[in-house]
Amino acid sequence: MKVENNHLTGEFLYTNLRGFNLKGQLTAFIKENTLFLQQLFLDSKNFYLIGQGTLERKEGKLSFLGQVKPIKKRNFLMEAVNFKGSATVELPRVYLTAYVEEPKIRVVEQEIVNLTGIIRGEGKLFKSLVARGDFTNGELELHAEYQIIPENLLTFSYRNLRITEKAFKLKEKVNAVFEGEGVLRFKEKKLKVSGVSRNILVGKDTFGEGSFEFNYILGKEGKLTAYLSNHGDIRLKINLGKGGIKGEVYGENYSFSFKELTGKITGKVNFEKTKDKMFAEFSGNLANLSYREVVLPQINFEGYFKNSQLVAALSGRGLKARLRGKPDDLNIELALKNFRLRHRSGELIVPSGAFILQAQGKHLKGKGNFTGLNISSQGVRLVSSGKIRFKKDEHLYLDLTGDLSVFYKDKVIDESLRYAFGVNKNLIDLKGASKRTRLRLNYRIDQKKGSFGGEYAAKKAFLSFWGKIKDRKLFAEGKVRLKVLGDYVNLRGNLEVEKDYARVKLQPYRYRGKLISYNFEGLQIVKKGAEISVLFRGLETEFMKRPLLTISEAKGQGTLKGIQLSPLKLKGIVEGSLNLGYREELFVYSKGRINLTLLSKNMASLIRSELDGRVDYEFWMRGKEFRLVATTKEIVRIRSAYFYEPFIGAINLEVEPNSLMFSMVNWFKSGYLNAYAIAKDYKNFNVIFQFERVPVKYYTKELKVALLADGKGKVGVKNFKKINFELNTAFDGSVRILKIPEAKGKKETKLPLELILNTEFKTKTGLSVKLPEGRLFTALSGKVYGRYPDVNYDILVQVKSGKVSYFGKDFIVKGGKLELRKKDEEEERYVDLELNTWEEPYKIFLKVKGELENPEVYYFSEPPLSRRDILLRLIGGGGNNAVLPVATALSQELEQVGAFKGTLERLFDVKIGIGVQTTPTGELGAAIDLRKRISRLFSIKYRLSTLKDKRATYWEVEARPPLDADVGFHFFLYSDETREYRLGYRKEFNF
Fold it and tell me: What are phi and psi of 167, to 5 degrees?
């Protein structure tokens, strides 16, 4: 230091034990009691300062400016910090205020710019020195307090410290805002920093909360603990030392996502890393796994990583896997047993499978086999077994062979389809064949072209398609042949795809069937970019060459997310409009009237009814939601083949997915039929019905029935697959049997659903039955129950009275019954009838009893006659077109007369023949022949017949000449007094 004329100049150097050096230069002068500091210059490795001011004995004022020099490290950059301020001296205290500017701080690749603040300091000579500062750049807020004397302690807090992926050199987007605090104890060389963030974004995932705490002894060791929450917890503990790091990571129900894989992880990882080794041991499970809406089973895992070697085992329901090797040379063994994957629209099941994979860098190869692979979705089910081999390096090599069966709603579409799929460098080849199907695909990857085709044949359908692929263009054509109502329908169409353009086109088709005909004018769907256009050209239908329904042309515009067609007009049996569209789901709206009058005109021969009236309807559907309302605002008039008088009716119907309301009322002249249903499910409901004095009729060529019925019942529907029909009815009326039904072979009846019957019936007063042989008055009761068509029944027909005729005789029915029973495989048909007739002066009594097909007949007379005489008196002519088995029983009894035929032949020296005759019209009668040979050349025959035809009773004279040839002359004299001559010749030839 140099002093001249009260002027001070000089230089100084300050050094401490920590290696801190501070150089200084001073220029000042003293005037009276005041020191005027002209310039104070301080310079060190990290900063410099220039100051000036005045200082009296105990007070003074200083101003200064300076700069903290730039710091540049590998992952840290701080540009020069400029500061400017002033100080006030009030000995022994000093007060300091400074304004600070920091242009840029960069940590790794993240920057904090334009940071400014104010520092305020306070000190007491040789006792204390404290500096406090507040800094901000509009977002970040930083507060610090530095106790230089006596503690040498730095404390700080911060808010809105934004951390992004640039701070970690990550490609995944990271965004988090932290706030926290810290303390640095220079004497103890201890640092402690903590922080918390309540909104952390990593990629597309948002974490609810994160926090950390870092404790570090400078130059020695430290400990970091961190916590992260996202519908689960992750806890991290890391110990830092000179030799390396050691730590533990624990996660519990921690939600994660990797591309399209999501789930929750619970597990623990212990790890240790030094210069010489890296070791990690892990265990845990992955739950709630899903990939692209595919639900994966829970996976349990355990293993370790040591010296670049990985050993791990995975297990789950139906799955076991083992991994061994280095990350760039890894062997994987995978075994599946009853493995199952679920999707919202389907399921995959692998009963058995085994695979071996080997990954070496970019090279991958493997092989395996599977049996019973079962894939099901929306009613379609694929079942396959096969073998697979593949190799991937610069090119892909793949061989997959197996058998495939296809089912739709448990119905076989195709089975035993042998397929082979291969990839050989640039060639893709697919072949498939079965009894029904042919498939073929060839594609050159390097040339970007290929061809494909196939066909499928079923009982009522045939499909074939073919096409080509070139660059990004695809063209395909196809045709389908369907059997509809006994006739074949052919449809053709094509498909074109090129980049953002696609077109589907169905060609017009005209179909002429036996009952239904239609003109389909065509359909076209075009996609250009995101825009879609639809053109429906219309449809006309006919029934038995009569116009039935016409649907007008419609156009539509939209995108894949939504499209709307212009309203379609409906004409014919339905008069109204139809709106179709799609916005995330299909929606339909239609409103109009069903013309019952026109419907019955076109289809009266099928429904056997004539209707006059209309039904108003309104239908709305969006996705799985829908609503249907149908009602008759005016009375409908009905003539039906099932009722023998016309009647009027009305209906009301409301259907929604969770409700069903239905009511129907029909009025007859003196009766009614009502039905209603109220349910919470339109697939499961009961229709309750009640009727009184309903005039029912049933007419065929063989049978005519007219009844007046009362009763009630219920129709129960279960999921449209099962119907329970219950009925309890009482009726009176008449039945006319015109002809005995011809016996028909048993035809198996198949219904598209299960029908269960439970019916009981009876007559109130009686039933009049008119038979071909007469008339009966009966009472009927019984029940029919069981699964159709193999129903059980128990029916009793009580015959109260009647009059019938057999063999030309009239019989009075005094009483009887007919019992019909069937239960499972056992069936009984039993008859018991009592009849009588008169043959003056005799009264004859009959009783027919036993099985309906082969009953026994009992008979006697008053006064008593022999068995033979009674039969000959009973069989006097008539026909056998009868329902009751009386005639059959008498005919069988007549054959027993032959037992006493021999006695008559010996007594009268004649040949007697007794038999039964029938005519083309079905008439049945008895015939008795008496033949007497007069000599070798002449014989006489007399036939007595009970048939009405007089030519059935006649005399015959036969004369034969004495020749070797078999020649005969016949003369006939009939009971109607007509005559006939015949000449017969018969010769045997030996050649």
Answer: -70, -15
